[in-house]
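User: I've been trying to design a sequence by hand for this structure and keep getting stuck. Would you show me what you'd pick, starting by listing the structure so we're on the same page?

Assistant: Good idea, let's start from the same input. This is the structure you sent:
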């Protein structure tokens, strides 16, 4: 087992209804694949099925098992759960998933690469190291001679051989037309010998063990030779006229064309302008006219599709006379008639459906006249239908004529065609589409055979290919007209095989091909799937499963001609194809060839280091990139002999498998035909003279160059040169760089192609100089194709010989000074860290190649090594290429984790976060990328959010990467902002600074990837340090929990100015600092920002309401108890009028204009006392009062102090007595929109109900506090949501507080049991216990909306428009506002659940879910309400009272924080209702939260917004991350 940090883990996110069958996912053995749930599936009971077998079990394609889920955090939190596969077997595997009644909601395939091994010690041969050479087996001679002929591959540096099939060939002698799939071709055995597969196996084993070479061969599943013995005995294995009667018309046409051929060959059409020797356009026109005048009319092919009219009409007449009625169960009452094709395809064998005829043609009566009339209608309709069939056949015949003429043009007229000469029976006018194993007869006699199945079963369809056909369609099956339209480019030597849907459809064929597959897999290391795109997928799937049972690490290659990567992927994924054959010859010029090199492998130079656990990314198929394939035209004919070497060099520099075909390296100047070639390959002889035809050596062709290139290819792949850069120097020079990201060595190959013959094409004599960054260590090789005097090429009769007039002049491993290609090399320095060598060339002639080995200049090399040394403390992947530091700088002597362990969470706020306005307080700001945008944070998260998008796709062109390459500004920014601080933060800054000092001395193209590596390491270490300072709930929590907990670090910090008023000096553990402004000692308590970026600094940072809604989630649950205590006590010191301020303004500029903040504060004290060990001690903590009386000026800290329980009692007492005052400085100075009446603040406890009630219609004292601002719309100074009266959440919060003080008093922890108040002129004592009971009794009577008109509690039945809910308020000045459906009652449910009857609560929650629950938040108003508007636009000013200047802030937009209370309430009451309700609710909760998790992961702010517009749409006026949004979601997870 690998240690976890080295193990490669890929994560595949499953999304509902996402089918990835056409996406390729490639994995290696030893990888772990994890399936995780995307947001659309979280909360659902998902089951993942796969056919990847349990260890030790055989693979069965249709045997699926369910994977078990792992819960890394031990909790049922779907953000982290996964199921996984440890991949140890090569092949293609399927997975699918579903939930509930949906078994399949999505799925796909994964392909696991084989591990190939060579040599006596079974060394691994990486796929990218492969260099393969193809041999036409029939040109190898007797098996005894094979080693001498195959040695050419070994001595040319290849490590894999591809043999065309070794079986007995058919009559045509094509390498791919096999007469017998099971036997070794007897022609490979000399007289008196009989070699077998075992002998081949022994040779293959010798090549593997002694020569370090693997062998693969073809499997041909699609067809067999027309003369195969077994197909005569088993004609059902092909497409014949018995099992495929739809081919009968095509066969008739095929025979007619054969007879046309014989007549044309005999000259019988010369009079009609069609001689045997077809040479011009008029002959082609003559073919068309003969077809239309003589052939088609005689064949009457349309009759196979038509109906005999008289027979149908007679049948219909009889039915009518008998009074037969249509069978409505068949027709379903639908009228209309169509021809039903005769499945046996007899002439006039088709019919019409009589039920449809009776339904469609109904006589007016049963009189003979009406029946005849009706039969007339039918006759007319059937004639029309026959006419349609005639038209369709006419179209088929038109296409057939075009294809026949096109075929003749290619075979007889075209320059690039075979020029077959006059028509004769050996070279017919068109290739026959069917076998005809009978003696010659006339066409008329042949057509009579159609009725004799014992004969027609032997008329077998030939195979071939169809231009731009759908590769997933079998062109020989019913429904295809390829044969009758003559669209098949036919192989007249091969019969197409008919497998059917499975072994039961053709048992002999499946068994025969299974044996063939087993033999191949037993003796070879891999297979090439011949004609893969036309092989039925289910057949290839079955056969490869068989092959992998015999040879588990089977190497599978194929060449696909689907024309689309998506279609390629269907074959690659279903079959588990390891490498797709790609060809350099497909490139029309050097630009395109360079693009192919870049496309088929490797990552860009300077790519980011990827984490070992990362998302599984779709990939393109692994390439086997060949300079030429064995069945394509010869490059020397299409380009020039001189291009063989440079094009080969470009292919060898590709980061994938590469190779060639035998004959290319020897400069054979023609295609070696797989059909016609019968000569032998030359043998290996190291001292063969250039003129030799039967032997080759290093002097032959470009073999010496190829040997050097193959060695280089294998070295680059085995030593980790995985990065690729292709530079198009000019029209014919391409430079390919391969770079090793750990040692920073490069090899740069400069290739001068010669697509045109230099003798006829004028090449540019000016070769531009090259600039190579770094230090050139050596010239790995320089090679030129040169002419020599060794005679001219003459095709040999016995051997496949090449052009003796060219050879390669090559030197390897020489110094730059010894090179004859390079004129001079000057060193130019490009800045402190970069050396660039300028190379000018003197002999880089067309057809030459030079490759340099380049390293960084010595200083940069050392700096990169030191960087890797220090990075290896974070991951062992940096060890390779690292250099130990003899005398480390002071800043780097301690590991980063040790420095980080000294940071507080307030320090980590500075290190990781701080938005622009927070940073500006200190005179800084966030880094801005010129021409792009500013980072969201000055801390590391600002960069990490951007780098997270750059890294997976290696988007090195991103403006941030460009900025890093251009200069050190960003690097210095990161370290300097920390160095300028004191203490441990400065030390982290110095550590970064020292790392960046190394970074500044390496080449600029490497700066982005190492900058990313340093930042990732610093960031992950900082996260570890953060979690260690938090509660066990966070430390052991899921990723989601930890993400939310980061919100605590994001929001809680210490600014340049103290945001909180000082707390008592008697309190322990209060942080102090020397003020950066006054130089005096001052408290520096952490304060909580309401949201970023708008509420983060200055007087707008701290708000009483926001602080105490967020405090439990962000501070208590995260374990920040001391800081929470300090905030509670600081706000306690500002109590005035019995209220806690809304806008804190450091206490001195506080505004006491909200009715709810004091209740949230009391709730937090209760939460603190219950959540924190010994938490009730806070009640005795001294509070230093800033305003001990309502009207005093702010007092100095410590002047008046009293215990917290006194302050609590005061707040309750003031409410019971009644609060009424006018805000200080009332007027435009403190609020430019408020009307005069709005500054009057009043709140009290209603003696009748115990409800805390207050406010007026000109102010808004709850969280829904939007004040109108538009003069144009006349809403200025009018609150959108005054919520005066008793707001439901305040009633719930006050009930919670009163209940708690009653409990505290009973335990002796709170000295007060009630308050004396004046009522009706008398002083009365109201006990807290009495208040508590009154609230309990009054709540549902006052707030429940039953919808029952007889309900005695219902004051305004006419205002009810949603029943089964709780009112939003009680006693509002506008009574209809009480009845609006809003999410606020859910808050009361969480803090005071005792007020609610479970069944009623559940009804109300159900309504809230249906009407208010949005994607991320809760609608703030019922969408059925007439003033609902879900889009918040604060900049819009128009005449609309309800929306102008954002008036609808709380009238529809979806706020996030209430969703936390809704879900918590739902969980609480679901538990009361039983297990089923609870299980359903947990599903809902997980599903809703998954959307928050996704948002959090994707947000560059790493936060949750204040609100969204309707249906979760982005709102640009919202804070990007809001404290209470993060806090309440975290609280839900805590409850879960």
């Amino acid at each position: 087992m690998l240690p976890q940090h080295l193990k490669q883990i890929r994560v595949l996110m499953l999304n509902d209804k996402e089918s990835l069958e056409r996406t390729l996912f490639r994995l290696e053995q030893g990888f772990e694949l994890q399936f995780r749930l995307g947001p659309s599936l979280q909360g659902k009971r998902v089951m993942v099925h796969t056919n990847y077998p349990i260890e030790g079990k055989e693979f069965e394609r249709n045997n699926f098992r369910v994977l078990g889920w792992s819960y890394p955090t031990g909790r049922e939190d779907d953000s982290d759960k996964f199921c996984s596969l440890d991949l140890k077997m090569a092949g293609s595997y399927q997975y699918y998933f579903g939930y509930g009644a949906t078994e399949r909601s999505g799925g796909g395939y994964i392909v696991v690469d084989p591990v190939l091994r060579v040599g006596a010690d079974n060394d691994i041969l990486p796929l990218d190291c492969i260099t393969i050479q193809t041999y036409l087996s029939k040109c190898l001679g007797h098996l005894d001679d094979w080693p001498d002929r195959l040695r050419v591959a070994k001595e040319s540096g290849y490590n894999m051989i591809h043999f065309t099939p070794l079986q007995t060939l058919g009559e045509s002698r094509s390498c791919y037309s096999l007469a017998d799939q099971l036997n070794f071709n007897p022609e490979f055995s000399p007289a008196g010998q009989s070699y077998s597969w075992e002998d081949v196996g022994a040779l293959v084993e010798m090549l593997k063990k002694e020569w370090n070479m693997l062998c693969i061969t073809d499997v041909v599943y699609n067809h067999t030779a027309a003369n195969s013995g077994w197909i005569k005995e088993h004609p059902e294995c092909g497409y014949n006229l018995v099992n495929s009667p739809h081919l009968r018309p095509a066969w008739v046409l095929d025979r007619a064309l054969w007879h046309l051929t014989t007549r044309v060959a005999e000259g019988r059409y010369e009079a009609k302008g069609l001689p045997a020797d077809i040479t011009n356009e008029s002959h082609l026109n003559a073919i068309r006219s003969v077809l239309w005048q003589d052939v088609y009319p005689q064949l009457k092919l349309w009759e196979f599709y038509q109906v005999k009219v008289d027979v149908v009409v007679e049948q219909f007449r009889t039915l009518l006379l008998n009074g037969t009625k249509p069978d409505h169960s068949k027709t379903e009452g639908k009228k209309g008639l169509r021809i039903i094709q005769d499945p046996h395809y007899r002439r006039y064998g088709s019919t019409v459906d009589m039920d449809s005829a009776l339904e469609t043609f109904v006589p007016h009566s049963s009189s003979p006249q009406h029946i005849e009339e009706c039969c007339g209608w039918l006759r007319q309709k059937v004639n029309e239908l026959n006419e349609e069939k005639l038209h369709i056949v006419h179209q088929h015949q038109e296409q057939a004529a075009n294809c026949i003429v096109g075929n003749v043009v290619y075979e007889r007229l075209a320059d690039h065609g075979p020029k077959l000469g006059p028509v004769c029976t050996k070279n017919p006018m068109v290739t026959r589409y069917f076998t005809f194993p009978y003696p010659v007869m006339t066409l008329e006699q042949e057509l009579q055979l159609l009725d004799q199945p014992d004969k027609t079963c032997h008329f077998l369809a030939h195979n071939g290919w169809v231009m731009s056909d759908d590769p997933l369609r079998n062109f020989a099956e019913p429904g295809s007209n390829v044969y009758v339209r003559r669209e098949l480019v036919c192989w007249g030597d091969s019969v197409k095989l008919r497998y059917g849907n499975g072994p039961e459809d053709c048992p002999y064929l499946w068994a025969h091909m299974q044996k063939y597959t087993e033999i191949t897999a037993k003796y070879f290391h891999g297979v090439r799937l011949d004609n893969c795109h036309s092989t039925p997928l289910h057949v290839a799937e079955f056969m490869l499963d068989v092959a992998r049972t015999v040879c588990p690490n089977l190497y599978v290659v194929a060449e696909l001609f689907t024309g689309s990567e998506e279609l390629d992927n269907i074959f690659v994924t279903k079959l588990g194809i390891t490498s797709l054959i790609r060809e350099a010859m497909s490139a029309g010029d050097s630009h395109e060839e360079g693009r192919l090199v870049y496309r088929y492998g490797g990552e860009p130079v300077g790519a980011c280091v990827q984490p070992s656990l990362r998302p599984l990314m779709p990939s393109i198929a692994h390439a086997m990139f060949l300079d030429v394939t064995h069945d394509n035209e010869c490059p020397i004919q299409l380009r020039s002999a001189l291009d063989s070497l440079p094009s080969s060099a470009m292919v060898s520099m590709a980061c994938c498998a590469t190779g060639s075909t035998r004959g290319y390296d020897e400069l054979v100047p023609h295609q070696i035909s797989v059909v016609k070639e019968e000569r032998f390959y030359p043998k290996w002889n190291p001292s063969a003279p250039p003129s030799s035809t039967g032997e080759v050596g290093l002097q032959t062709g470009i073999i010496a160059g190829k040997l050097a290139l193959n060695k280089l290819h294998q070295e680059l792949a085995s030593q980790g040169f995985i990065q690729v850069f292709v530079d198009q120097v000019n029209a014919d020079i391409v430079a390919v760089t391969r770079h090793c990201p750990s040692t920073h060595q490069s090899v740069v190959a400069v290739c001068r192609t010669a697509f045109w013959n230099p003798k006829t094409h004028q090449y540019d004599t000016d070769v531009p100089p090259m600039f190579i960054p770094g230090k050139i260590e050596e010239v790995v090789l320089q090679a030129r194709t040169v002419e020599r005097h060794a005679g001219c090429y003459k095709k040999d009769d016995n051997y496949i010989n090449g052009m003796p007039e060219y050879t390669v002049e090559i030197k390897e491993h020489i110094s730059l000074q010894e090179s004859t290609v390079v004129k001079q090399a000057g060193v130019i320095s490009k800045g402190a860290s970069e050396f660039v060598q300028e190379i000018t060339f003197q002999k880089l002639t067309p057809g030459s190649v030079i490759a340099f080995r380049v390293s960084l200049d010595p200083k940069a090399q050392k700096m990169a090594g030191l960087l890797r040394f220090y990075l290896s403390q974070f991951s062992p992947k940096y060890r390779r290429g690292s250099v130990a530091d003899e005398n480390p700088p002071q800043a780097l002597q301690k590991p980063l984790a040790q420095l980080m362990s000294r940071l507080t969470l307030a320090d980590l706020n500075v290190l990781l976060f701080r938005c622009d306005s927070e940073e500006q307080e200190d005179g800084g700001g966030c880094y801005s990328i010129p021409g792009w945008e500013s980072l969201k944070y000055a801390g590391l998260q600002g960069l990490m959010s951007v780098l997270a998008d750059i890294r997976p796709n290696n988007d090195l062109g991103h403006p941030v990467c460009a900025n890093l390459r251009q200069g050190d500004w960003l690097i210095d920014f990161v370290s300097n902002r920390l160095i300028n601080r004191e203490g441990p933060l400065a030390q982290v800054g110095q550590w970064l600074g020292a790392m960046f000092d190394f970074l500044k001395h390496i080449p600029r193209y490497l700066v982005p990837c190492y900058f990313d590596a340093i930042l990732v390491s610093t960031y992950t270490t900082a996260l570890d340090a953060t979690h260690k300072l938090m509660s066990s709930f966070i430390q052991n929590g899921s990723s989601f929990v930890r993400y939310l907990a980061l919100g605590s670090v994001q929001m809680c910090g210490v600014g340049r100015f103290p945001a909180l008023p000082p707390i008592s000096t008697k309190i322990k553990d209060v942080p102090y600092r020397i003020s950066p402004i006054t130089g005096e000692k001052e408290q520096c308590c952490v304060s909580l920002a309401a949201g970023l970026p708008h509420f983060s600094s200055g007087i707008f940072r701290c708000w009483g309401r926001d602080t105490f809604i967020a405090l439990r989630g962000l501070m208590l649950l995260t374990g920040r108890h001391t800081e929470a205590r300090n905030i509670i006590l600081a706000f306690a010191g500002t109590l005035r009028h019995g209220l806690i301020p809304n806008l804190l303004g450091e206490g001195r500029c506080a505004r006491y204009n909200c009715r709810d903040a004091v209740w949230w504060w009391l709730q937090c004290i209760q939460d603190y006392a219950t959540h924190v060990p010994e938490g009730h001690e806070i009640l005795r903590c001294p509070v230093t009062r800033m305003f001990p009386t309502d009207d005093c000026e702010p007092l100095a800290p410590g002047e008046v102090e009293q215990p917290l329980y006194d302050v609590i009692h005061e707040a309750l007492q003031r409410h019971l007595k009644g609060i009424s005052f006018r805000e200080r400085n009332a007027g435009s100075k403190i609020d430019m929109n408020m009307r005069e009446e709005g500054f009057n603040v009043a709140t009290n406890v209603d003696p009748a109900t115990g409800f805390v009630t207050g406010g007026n219609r000109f102010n808004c004292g709850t969280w829904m506090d939007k004040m109108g601002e538009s003069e144009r719309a006349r809403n200025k100074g009018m609150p959108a949501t005054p919520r005066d009266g008793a707001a439901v959440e305040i009633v719930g919060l006050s009930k919670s507080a009163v209940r708690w003080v009653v409990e505290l008093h009973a335990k002796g922890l709170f000295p007060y049991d009630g308050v004396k108040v004046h009522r009706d002129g008398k002083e009365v004592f109201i006990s807290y216990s009495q208040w508590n009971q009154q609230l309990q009794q009054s709540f549902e009577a006052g707030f429940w909306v039953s919808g029952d008109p007889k309900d005695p509690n219902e004051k305004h039945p006419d205002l009810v428009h949603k029943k089964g809910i709780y009112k939003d308020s009680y006693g509002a000045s506008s009574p209809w506002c009480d009845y609006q459906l809003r999410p606020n009652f859910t808050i009361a449910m969480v803090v005071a659940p005792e007020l609610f009857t479970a069944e009623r609560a559940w009804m109300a929650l159900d309504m809230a879910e249906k009407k208010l629950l949005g994607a991320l938040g809760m609608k703030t108003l019922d969408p059925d309400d007439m003033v609902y508007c879900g889009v918040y636009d604060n900049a819009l000013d128009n005449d609309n009272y309800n929306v102008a200047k954002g008036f609808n802030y709380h009238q529809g937009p979806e706020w996030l924080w209430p969703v936390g209370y809704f879900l918590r309430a739902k969980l609480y009451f679901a538990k009361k209702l039983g297990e089923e309700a609870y299980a359903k609710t947990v599903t809902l909760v997980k599903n809703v939260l998954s959307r928050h998790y996704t948002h959090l992961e994707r947000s560059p702010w790493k936060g949750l917004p204040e609100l969204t517009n309707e249906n979760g749409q982005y709102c640009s006026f919202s804070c990007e991350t809001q404290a209470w949004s993060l806090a309440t979601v975290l609280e839900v997870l805590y409850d879960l």
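That's my pick for every position. To get oriented when you compare it with your attempt: Residues 207 and 282 are 58 Å apart (CA to CA). The two ends are 35 Å apart (CA to CA).
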